[in-house]
């Protein structure tokens, strides 16, 4: 059977402002929480000592070089590009009454450049950053006032870009707030579960208000949420392991439940009761939450196993802890590779919500090597993406409605978790190392031509033999 995707399938790639733009203090931009994480999400936030090196201050200089990069994405045939707006370019402190025109103008130019090539912008409102001033003076998402600040920001960009952007996301990997509460919520690490879930509630209400504003201002747009998805397999067939896998999945499915169904599910209400968590939820909050998303988007990098055996050794995969699956291999960073898990996930979400799905992050971080002839033979990346895309097609054949696929990240970027350049995802190599040395020159890898061919053939060029075994 041929691997042909729908003709309107949105092929592309995904980026984040704080990992690519650089120009951290240019154009009136304020400091964000990301600027206070010079070593990445897996390390504590710190104040910014004068002169301290931060790789993200320049990143890959997308702020100045985006025309060149967009042209390369267009050469591959991108139908869409996911990136984010840096909230602090629009409202540097977060609480201003009037937005920063220079920041607004930058994104006007960026979106115009995409549209020039027929690339649809897919825009995240908040991707692992918020104005640091909102953390310092208000307590981040722990303060209900932040809902109003976010709503003002969202309304501003919807009104400004209503004729340019038709696909929107509210918060990136919103469930990661449970594991890195400064990154997601602007709360001190080690905050109580009560404080975290109250802040999460404020964020969910803000997301729903943004959805409502988008529906009002841009009626022909589609807006979704974004969750870091990780399927869990029972480590054994013991019933307790099955229940533990269900419990672990519900931790992140909860965020889809609220945003796709408009209310808190019974399983999370039981969890709150058992842990003595009492949220302040107003009648207006409940009304706001009824404004649900148009589609569900998610990142997928790995699956995990779950067991009721508390002594079982866990390994780190990104920010999350996981129990390795003995039937799977892993990347250089210990992330288990499970293409079939993506098909399982797509079917699971479709069966549960019956809303369109969008895979907005999936990719392989690896240490690439430049050969003597200047080429980068990243066959490992091609194999990873090929096998995952074959499983996406299988899910579509199962009857799942999938809007598109944006691989992470189509050009080498600064890693979010550890702030490295050596962990490379891109089809395009950027000449910069972990110490900030390099020319920033762009270079096509072998995978560049491969992805171009995949898009041009609508997936027909994919190799259908998939191997999950070690």
From TrEMBL:
One Pfam family here: Glyco_hydro_1
The keyword Hydrolase appears for this protein: yes
PROSITE patterns: GLYCOSYL_HYDROL_F1_1 (PS00572), GLYCOSYL_HYDROL_F1_2 (PS00653)
One Gene Ontology cellular component annotation held by this UniProt entry: cytosol
SUPFAM superfamilies noted in UniProt: (Trans)glycosidases
InterPro entries assigned: GH, GH_1_N_CS, Glyco_hydro_1, Glyco_hydro_1_AS
GO molecular function: beta-glucosidase activity
Active site residues according to the UniProt entry: 361 (nucleophile)
GO BP field: carbohydrate catabolic process
Keywords: Glycosidase, Hydrolase
Keyword Hydrolase: yes
Source taxon at top rank: Bacteria
Family recorded in the similarity comment: Belongs to the glycosyl hydrolase 1 family.
Protein name (record): 6-phospho-beta-glucosidase
Species for this entry: Rouxiella badensis
Upper taxonomic lineage: Bacteria, Pseudomonadati, Pseudomonadota, Gammaproteobacteria, Enterobacterales
């Amino acid at each position: 059977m041929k691997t042909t995707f729908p003709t309107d399938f949105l092929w592309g790639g995904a980026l984040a402002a704080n990992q690519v733009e650089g120009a951290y203090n240019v154009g009136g931009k304020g400091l964000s929480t990301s600027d206070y994480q010079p070593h990445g999400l897996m390390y504590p936030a710190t104040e910014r000592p004068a002169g301290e090196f931060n790789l993200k201050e320049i990143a890959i200089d997308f702020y100045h070089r985006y025309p060149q990069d967009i042209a390369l994405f267009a050469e591959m045939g991108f139908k869409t590009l996911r990136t984010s707006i840096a909230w602090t370019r629009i409202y540097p402190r977060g609480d201003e009454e009037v937005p920063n025109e220079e920041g607004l103008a930058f994104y006007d130019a960026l979106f115009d450049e995409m549209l020039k090539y027929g690339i649809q912008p897919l825009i995240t409102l908040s991707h692992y950053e918020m104005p640091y001033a909102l953390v310092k003076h208000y307590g981040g998402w722990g303060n209900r006032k932040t809902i109003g600040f976010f709503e003002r920001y969202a309304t501003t960009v919807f009104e400004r870009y209503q004729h340019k952007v038709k696909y929107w996301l509210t918060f990136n990997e919103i469930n990661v707030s449970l594991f890195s509460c400064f990154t997601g919520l602007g709360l001190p690490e080690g905050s109580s579960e009560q404080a975290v879930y109250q802040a999460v509630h404020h964020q969910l209400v803000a997301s729903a208000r943004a959805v409502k504003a988008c529906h009002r201002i841009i009626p022909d747009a589609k807006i979704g949420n974004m969750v870091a998805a990780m399927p869990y397999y029972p480590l054994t067939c013991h019933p307790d392991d099955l229940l533990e896998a269900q419990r672990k999945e519900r931790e992140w499915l909860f965020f889809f439940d609220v945003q796709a169904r408009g209310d808190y599910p019974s399983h999370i209400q039981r969890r709150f009761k058992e842990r003595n968590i009492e949220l302040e939820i107003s009648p207006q909050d409940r009304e706001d939450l009824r404004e649900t998303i148009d589609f569900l988007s998610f990142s997928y990098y790995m699956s995990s196993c779950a067991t009721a055996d508390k002594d079982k050794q866990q390994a780190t995969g990104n920010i999350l802890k996981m129990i390795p699956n003995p039937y799977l291999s892993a990347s250089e960073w210990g992330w288990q590779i499970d293409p079939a898990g993506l098909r399982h996930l797509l079917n699971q979400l479709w069966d549960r919500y019956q809303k369109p799905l969008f895979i907005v992050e999936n990719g392989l971080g690896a240490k690439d090597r430049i050969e003597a002839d200047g080429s980068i033979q990243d066959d490992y990346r091609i194999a990873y993406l090929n096998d995952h895309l074959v499983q996406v097609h299988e899910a579509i054949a199962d009857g799942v409605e999938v809007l598109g696929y944006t691989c992470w990240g189509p050009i080498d970027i600064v890693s979010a978790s550890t702030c490295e350049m050596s962990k490379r995802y891109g089809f395009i190599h950027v000449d910069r190392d972990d110490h900030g040395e390099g020319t920033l020159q762009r270079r096509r890898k072998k995978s560049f031509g491969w992805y171009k061919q995949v898009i041009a053939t609508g997936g027909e060029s994919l190799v259908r033999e998939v191997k999950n075994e070690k």
